[in-house]
Specification:
heterodimer; A: 273 residues; alpha/beta; 4-stranded parallel β-sheet; 14 helices; B: 654 residues; 18 helices; 25% strand; binds flavin-adenine dinucleotide; binds iron/sulfur cluster
Chain lengths: 273, 654
């Protein structure tokens, strides 16, 4: 069954490696994923303000389009896109007045009815089954100690969560299936500082420092994430961290798909990154 | 027919708005009304007498009282009528207070018109009324109490001391419930076992109490006055008559498993008593952990050790049927599993424990002999963080309610810990301290001040382990600061939830539960111990989170309700019940399914004859759903027949 893929803006720009690695994985595992034509903005933080219907137009338009093309499932990689799409879907589910208003705005689209299911790429992988993933491993990641960092958007609010929102395990399970060794990492859901990175980079650097050091204390040699913003804060802000804590040593931060494609023997993506 | 109408002023409550004079005179002019008058307080002694006098003097046959809500005084006026020789069901109340003067205080004109309409409707309805007699059904004056915690024990003792027989059913091997697990009890700090065990023994020895431990209710049939209950006694594999409680078997049993009574902090053998003061003191083999199975005996250590030869590996479950007239449900509570409180590291770190686990750790008879030791390494903790409202007052966890007992037992725990470890430090996170019982606030104040406990107002966001410490992140909302505490142990006060299986049990008794699964009472204020199924009473924490004083009070209240019920030889029931109209009922059975009480069945008088419904009067609560459903006027609720309601409506619309 063909699944619609919604990339979102970051995947086409700063998180290019996230997309290439994920698409290569999908292909090698036989996941039939196809990019949605003419996709628009996911709504980003603006659609999370519940008081304004207008701001739901972005995500709902995407869902309407996927529905119009006959898709029953839509997948995303970016945590933010996942979150806004799921919340937009929930926002109109069972509220016909809201839905009608939004549909009236989108005359160019066929009406959205709420049938498309949104699944994060991680969920698709889990649905394939851990056994299937284990079988696909070409280069065992044995001995690789990895801290799985979730941030917030995959887990909050609880109704949008892809796993237990307090103690998620989905990334750990994935890493284990690939032969890697997920480490105990209590900061796995701590806030990365989010958009404060644009105005108060120092605050974000301090937060990121604590998260990274906690991973290191627990023996991690690398950190994985599924969110371009988390990745930026944890990876690119390491420069800022060094300015505040001169003794700080770099620690690699990857998208989970980058590590995964290495394990599945699709080496080129990791070399790219 | 001579209809008399009595209009009440209710002081200024009614007369302050409604023009009584105009009302009385227009009512008098109604064709159907024989006599109408008004009075300042009809419910008063002279008011009632005025009605009675007019009944006698004028030979009134039907009465309409225009006054307050029937919920308030219908019973009063009905009694006044009966005393004057008029059937209580020939009375109609027109509510011109709650439904008129109180809600229309600024429209006196219209209110007066409305009052007239209400009275007119009442007159029309009472004109169709017929005298009814209370129903009388047989009453079996024995009671079953389900749950052998303090609430069940108290209810059983009170009823038995009142002279009636009690079947006390407890599903674990011993009486006692959670109270048996407690160390000392707030706010007086008396030892829990010391006050509980004498009660347990008293209940077991009472000649009127039949004890069914290790037993469960399997089936309930019938209604108030005549329940038939099937009880299953699970096999102990030890003959309780022969077992002397010596414990020789336990010594030789090779199997050690976690002891539920110790919250798994200690062990027990496969043949065991939950705790040393268990009542009855009879051993039980837990076949799940015993080396033997039903098919295969591979170990006979206990059999050989047992002097009186009480052990029987082939014992079967026993089913018994008992007949009772009333039931008290006292199935108590459980705590939300700590595993459900992942944000606090519940289930993840051994040193994050629940209040009950802590209770066992500070109890002299507990697994550590009262020395507080943390589960992970047995060290004595120096710094403890208590987290109140763990899951309670938290809709995210499905428990929006306050668990009521945690503020108090946390203060108690803090107190006990400080006395055991004087140089220990205690931090308590709370939302607000609810200590609204006798002596409670004083107790909490004493703990806070004298014991120098740090109470932090705020919630904990996260608990995690760093080396051998637990790191607690929280906020202190009074200073607005984020706090991080490095603790040796964290004690949660998990939400109090209904005991396992309470919902299924409630279904057997046809008693409703609330959204959380606690048993529901009929009226939260005025009928707090009765369930809506007549003859089923509630006691203890099964109804809502409760401490011991409240559980015991409610148990005694439930017992007094049972004793009140049993003070009659036969059961008198209100005659407001559904009745089949055989001329109209064609047995379509539409009403059978809609009756929420299962009071309607379909019968056939002769093998091939027509079918019609039959109403079980004791089950019927007179709600009228059947009557509204039936398209053929095949069923009517006495006192509220379709004819009565039709006339009432017609009068209003005229
Ligand atoms: C940590 C902690 C500390 C506490 N400290 C205090 C204190 O200091 N002072 C105080 O006043 N209160 C205290 N309490 C509260 C106290 O435990 C309760 O008020 C009391 O136990 C309620 O009694 P109960 O009989 O209603 O329920 P329970 O004690 O729960 O007893 C219910 C009984 O019913 C049985 N049962 C359940 N379902 C069935 C079934 N289907 N069939 C047959 N039997 C069944 C159970 O096995 C149990 O024996 C504390 C509670 C906790 C958690
Ligand atoms: S038979 Fe079972 S209960 Fe008895 S000693 Fe052996 S293991 Fe223990
Ligand atoms: S009145 Fe209500 S309770 Fe009685 S039989 Fe009809 S539906 Fe059932």
């Amino acid at each position: 069954m063909e699944i619609a893929y919604f990339p979102g803006c970051t995947l086409k720009t700063t998180a290019k490696s996230f997309e290439t690695s994920a698409l290569a994985i999908a292909e090698s595992l036989g996941l039939d994923i196809k990019e949605l034509p003419e996709w628009t903005c996911c709504g980003t933080v603006y659609s999370l303000a519940e008081d304004d219907l207008m701001k739901q137009l972005g995500p709902i338009r995407t869902l309407a389009r996927a529905e119009g093309l006959g898709y029953s499932t839509l997948t995303t990689l970016c945590s933010m896109c996942y979150n806004t799409l799921v919340q937009a879907k929930q926002f109109v589910a069972g509220d016909s007045v809201r839905l009608q208003k939004i549909n009236n705005f989108m005359e160019e689209e066929s009406d959205y009815t709420g049938t498309v299911e949104i699944k994060h790429f991680l969920t698709l992988l889990m649905e394939l089954g851990l056994d299937r993933l284990k079988e696909a491993v070409q280069r065992d990641l044995a001995g690789r100690k990895i801290a799985c960092y979730y941030g917030c958007l995959l887990l909050r609010p609880e109704s949008a969560s892809i796993d237990d929102c307090e103690q998620p395990q989905i990334l750990e399970q994935l890493m284990q299936a690939l032969g890697a060794e997920p480490v105990f990492f209590p900061y796995q859901v701590e806030c990365c500082g989010s958009y404060l990175t644009a105005v108060k980079p120092d605050i974000v650097a301090r937060r990121a420092y604590r998260i990274l050091e906690n991973a290191r204390e627990n023996g991690a040699e690398a950190i994985i994430t599924s969110c371009p913003l988390c990745s930026f804060n944890l990876k690119d802000r390491q420069k800022n961290i060094k300015a505040i804590y001169p003794g700080f040593k770099d620690i690699p931060v990857y998208y989970f798909t980058e590590i995964m494609s290495e394990a599945l023997g699709i080496t080129k993506t990791v070399e790219n990154s | 027919m001579r209809i008399g109408v009595f209009i009440c002023h209710c002081g200024k409550n009614i007369a302050g708005v409604i023009d009584i004079k105009r009302l009385t005179s227009s009512v008098s002019e109604l064709e159907e009304v024989y006599y109408a008058t008004d009075y300042v307080y009809l419910c008063s002694e002279p008011g009632q007498k005025a009605i009675q006098d007019q009944i006698k003097e004028l030979g009134l046959t039907h009465i309409v009282v225009a006054a307050c809500s029937p919920k308030m005084h219908a019973a009063t006026f009905a009694q006044a009528l009966e005393d004057a020789g008029v059937n209580a069901y020939l009375l109609e109340i027109a509510n011109i207070r709650e439904q008129c003067s109180w809600v229309h205080p600024h429209e006196p004109e219209e209110a007066t018109d409305k009052a007239f309409e209400l009275i007119k409707a009442g007159v029309a309805k009472v004109g169709q009324a017929v005298p009814l007699q209370p129903l009388s059904v047989p009453l079996n004056r024995k009671v079953m109490v389900v749950g052998g915690g303090i609430a069940g024990i108290q209810a059983a003792l009170d009823i038995a001391n009142g002279g009636f027989e009690v079947y006390l059913v407890e599903r674990t091997p011993s009486l006692g419930g959670h109270m048996a697990q407690l160390s000392e009890t707030f706010p007086t700090l008396d030892c829990s076992s010391c006050i509980l065990t004498p009660r347990m023994v008293e209940a077991a020895k009472h000649p009127k109490i039949h004890l069914y431990t290790y037993s469960e209710v399997k089936e309930v049939q019938g209604v108030v006055g005549q329940y038939k209950v099937k009880i299953e006694q699970k096999p102990r594999y030890v003959d309780p008559v022969k077992c002397t409680g010596c414990g020789d078997c336990t010594e030789v049993c090779p199997v050690i498993v976690p002891n539920e009574f110790e919250q798994s902090l200690g062990g027990r053998k496969a043949i065991y008593v939950p705790f040393s003061q268990a009542v009855p003191l009879k051993y039980t083999i837990d076949l799940e952990n015993c080396l033997n199975t039903r098919e295969l005996v591979v170990c006979d250590q206990c059999y050989r050790a047992c002097g009186p030869k009480a052990i029987n590996y082939l014992m079967e479950p026993k089913e018994e049927e008992i007949e009772v007239g009333a039931i008290v449900v006292a199935t108590g509570y459980d705590l939300m599993p700590v595993e459900d409180l992942k944000e606090y590291g519940g289930g993840l770190y051994p040193d994050v424990v629940s209040g009950l686990e802590f209770e066992r750790l500070v109890t002299a008879s507990g697994p550590t002999s009262g020395v507080v030791r943390r589960p992970s390494d047995g060290k004595i903790p120096k710094r403890i963080v208590f987290i109140q409202c763990a899951g309670s007052r938290d809709p995210e966890h499905g428990c929006a309610y306050c668990s009521k007992i945690c503020c108090m037992y946390t203060a108690k725990h803090a107190f006990m810990f400080k006395h055991a470890v004087p140089d220990g430090e205690v931090f308590v996170f709370y939302i607000d301290v609810r200590a609204a019982g006798k002596g409670y606030e004083e107790f909490v104040q004493r703990v806070m001040e004298e014991e120098r406990i740090a109470y932090l107002r705020g919630k904990v966001s996260k608990v995690f382990q760093r080396d051998d410490k637990l790191i607690v992140w929280g906020s202190d909302t009074l200073t607005g600061m984020a706090v991080e505490i490095e603790a040796d142990m964290v004690v949660l006060a998990p939400a109090v939830v209904p005991s396992k299986g309470a919902k299924e049990l409630a279904k057997l008794f046809k008693t409703p539960v609330n959204e959380y699964g606690f048993l529901d009472e009929v009226h939260p204020k005025l009928r707090p111990v009765e369930s809506s199924a007549m003859g089923v009473y509630l006691a203890g924490a099964a109804q809502a989170p409760k401490d011991i004083p409240d559980s015991v009070s409610q148990a005694s209240a439930a017992a007094s309700k049972v004793l009140g019920l049993f003070s009659q030889e036969e059961l008198a029931l209100e005659p407001i019940k559904a009745e089949v109209n055989l001329d109209n009922c064609d047995g379509c059975a539409l009403c059978v399914g809609v009756c929420p009480y299962g009071a309607i069945s379909l019968v056939q008088d002769e093998p091939d004859g027509p079918r019609h419904i039959q109403v079980h009067k004791a089950l019927c609560q007179g709600c009228g759903v059947c009557m509204a459903t039936c398209p053929k006027e095949g069923v009517n609720v006495a006192g509220f027949t379709l004819a009565q309601l039709r006339e009432q409506l017609r009068a209003m619309l005229k």
